[in-house]
Amino acid sequence: MVLAGQPGWAWAPVDRVTQDGERHPGCSRTFLRRIVTEAAERHGLTFKAAVEVEWTVARGDATGDTFVPATTGPAYGAARQVELGDCTADLLAACAAQGLDVEQVHPEYAAGQFEISVGAVDPVAAADRSVLVRQTVRAVAQRHGLRVSFAPAVVGQGVGNGGHVHLSAWRDGVNLHSGGERRYGMTAEAESFTAGLLAHLPGLTAVTAPSPASYLRLRPSQWAGVFTAWGRETRETALRVVTGTAGLRDQAANLEVKPVDLAANPYLAIGCLIAAGLDGLTSSAVLPEEVTGDPARLPEAEAAARGVRRLPVSLERAVEEFRGDEPLRAALGPVLADAVIAVRRGSSRPSPGWTTTRWRRRTAGSTDVSAVREALDALSMVDHHCHGTVTADLDRAGFEPLLTEGDAWPGISPFDSPVGVAVRRHCAPLLDLPRHAPAEEYLARRRELGWREVHRRFLRAAGTGVFCVDTGYSPTG
User: Fold this and answer.
1) Domains of the chain and CATH, by start
2) pTM for the predicted model, two decimal places
3) Which residues are 69's β-sheet partners?
4) Do 258 and 223 touch, CB atoms closer than 8 A?
5) Are the CB atoms for 238 and 201 separated by under 8 Å?
6) Percent of residues, the chain, with pLDDT higher than 90
7) In the predicted model, what is the mean pLDDT of the chain?
8) DSSP state letters, 378-440
9) CA nearest neighbour of 461 among 433, 432, 427, 434
10) Is pLDDT above 60 for 353?
11) Would you say residue 468 has pLDDT above 70?
12) Cβ-based neighbour number of residue 206 at 10 Å
């Protein structure tokens, strides 16, 4: 295909083969094609898929790594469309010349952020389109003197860039997500397919959110879908049932998977999503009750009873979930499954050679908090003392005095002191709780997990390599 955004260049997606002409076991495009073929042969199913592409536009004349949005208009506003009208028009023209049927392009929520959606096609072509759309966006923007980023988190705070996947299963030309007798028109098979996706989401995250920066985006109450829950048009659930517009539902109904970003290999991501859904269909998995609001607001007991849990909060934990997901690893095969684990582990390790001087130079004047995090993670650090490490499951009276060395503030609980607020803000998510969870919920969760598991999670999250215990000065005689 001739690239309209890059005159003189062409693009062709291909499968990887060995020098002997055999299909390469590590080819992600071949993997997706295999999953699609097996679904047709074993279940009589075909699929349609599409990947939403979100990106952030920055001024090209900004110095270094400083992010300066190329637009000043508000979220979703027409002002942004006007500011980058020429660039957007050229983008649409390039997409049309390349045979991409654009359904919509519009400003998004974050500073300088836009989104483009193209029509749903077969899964391999959908993954191809995801790559082509990004190539076109980048090329057109560069010709207009702009820089773009598809990174999950361009800055450390706020809403990041997603790559939501829309997926629908079909049999004999009939959409299984419409016209059925189950909830919102789904057929029994569509419900089981959705239930399979829901069950495998924790392990899937290692594939769909494969970068350490992905977990700066995957935060509660920021539309990233970080809980194992589903709902119709529910923005905070990981799976969103899209029924489509009246009159078009038999064609438009689909399932949107939200905890996906564009750091993911689209072939692996779509293939694993289909494999997870097929596992649910094969076992006739039962789709649980719908969540209609923000899952982060559910009381802990209710969330547990409904099977709503927080997705992994770090790449390391996502890899742990993936390692424990046998059906997912089996679908990928040993070569690709081992590659996912090895690459994710490598991505989680700090880069060698960082120094404090380099960190200062790298981050000075930059709003890219991910750069700060990368630099800090690479430093070998020693904490000369540690508080709150206990070998018992304490009640509130036993725990509160450990929150601070100073006297308690008059009239308030130590949990509401600056240190206590910090504990509930940063430690609670590591225990699968929302940020700033109430003290009683925090302590109850600690007791539920047990002090050994709590310490394991905290030490792993802290990146602790060696944990030494000094028993103190003990004079003899």
Assistant:
1) 28-348 (3.30.590.10), 350-381 (no CATH), 385-461 (no CATH)
2) 0.75
3) 58
4) yes
5) yes
6) 68
7) 88
8) HS----S------SS---HHHHGGGG-SSPPPTTS-GGGSHHHHHHHHHTGGGGT--TT--HH
9) 427
10) no
11) no
12) 27
